[in-house]
Structures
1.
Amino acid sequence: MKILVTGVKGQLGHDVVNELTKRGHCPIGVDIEEMDITDMASVDKVVKEADPDAVIHCAAWTAVDAAEDCEEKVRLVNAVGTENIAKVCKELDCKMMYISTDYIFDGQGTKPWEPDCKEYQPLNVYGQTKLEGELAVANQLSKYFIVRIAWVFGKNGKNFIKTMLNLGKTHDSLRVVSDQIGTPTYTFDLARLLVDMIETEKYGYYHATNEGGYISWYDFTKEIFRQAAEMGHDEYREERLHVQPVTTEEYGVSKARRPFNSRLDKSKLAENGFVPLPDWKDALRRYLLEIEF
């Protein structure tokens, strides 16, 4: 299959192109230099020239706090840009996969969000514009996958793990939020699932994170440092580095409101014959072995 991948410089786009190549598909990776998704003429030209069998749309504005200060710019990328791609996919009658987020929900309660739940209530500009992107895809197309993910980490780019490892080197005490609950998603594992999906016609809404249960950012941080210390990085040992759990309120208000409940129900994956992602602790171990820190 010939597959156009947007956002190829990002954590996920990079891994998706590698996975497609590994399987003998023909990926065409583009980023802002090759195609400005906010410009319909640019999208029309690049996608039609590529004439793909499918588009995997990974490009997005993901800086959640910064989004609060430039709503229209973020909407251009996440909503208008997505709609532009969906329109061309409709014209070419090709599949489209849109990568979305748990932020389209209100993040309240403790029940895992189901993929086909329509109780949308985004808490911030990022969530609102990603939801508008979802609606654009669903309204334009019938051959689409909308895949919601959370707490993403990958080799190519910034993420929570890299931030914690860097802070851990220079601090002997860290405060980490313990009342926001979810599950991490390793882009290497996710890329495999996304390619599994795009090879089928099992369209619809899906949720995808690694397996292994629901945790807090505090739990995640403790496991990052535990595994790093186990690998011989003594600066992360519990005796030297204290991690203190705090509430979101105690931590201090960030510009954008964050969901307390990022639990995603992933049962639809197995129901449709897809192999779920491995345990997040295993994903973390493999990731730490991949990066330099």
2.
Amino acid sequence: MSHKTINTEQGHWILAKMGKKVLRPGGKELTLKLIDLLDINKQDNLVEFAPGIGFTAQFLLQKNPKSYTGIELNEEAARNLKRKISGNNRKIINTNAANTGLQEGQASKVIGEAMLTMQADHRKSEIIAEAYRILEKGGLYGIHELGLTPNNLDPRTKGGIQLKLAQTIRVNARPLTQNEWCELLTKEGFKIKEVYKNPMHLLEPIRVLSDEGLFGTLKIGYNVLTHPIERKRIKQMRKIFRQYEKQMTAFAIVAEK
């Protein structure tokens, strides 16, 4: 896959093409909960990993942080974000979250959503380590990611879910249990402060309505009905999500350096 242009074969970009703005596993509700837990204020130097289409960024900027830096790997997405986000101490950097180029200890808060899930476990650790490096002592790192439950989930079931997700959304999605997510964070030096979860109902009608509003939901519905290829892919994704509904969840975790 090229990181220059958006890969419209990937599940999250198909949903974005259909007009879906909320692409987080725990929905808008869990995103807002994570932002609330981070307690972002006017003194914060804030960094967001993989802002994507900029949905969460709009809420972050409403908090009027001292500075905002978005780290976006995809060139096309970064260009689109630069048109949306500008002004003093507001910038988008087209680079990798594992190697941001930012100074050590320059951020007070770092947030990343639905991006660690898409990485191999060693790559997750590299990104978490970079968050730790760029945070000041006492700084907070908030993540919102796809999860698995319970903590003692059978490894064969876990592997089967990861394989089905990779085949369906065409991204190497590797969700983890709560214990596994927390362990990755603590191994890089973080202290876990808060853990919240929400059902993974990304494509369920009630969640879509809650996330997108009535007008947005109607727009998505129309687009899906008039795009048969995308409709087929979305139905496949929803089938997998429903098949593993009891084993899949979403976590919002706040950790402290």
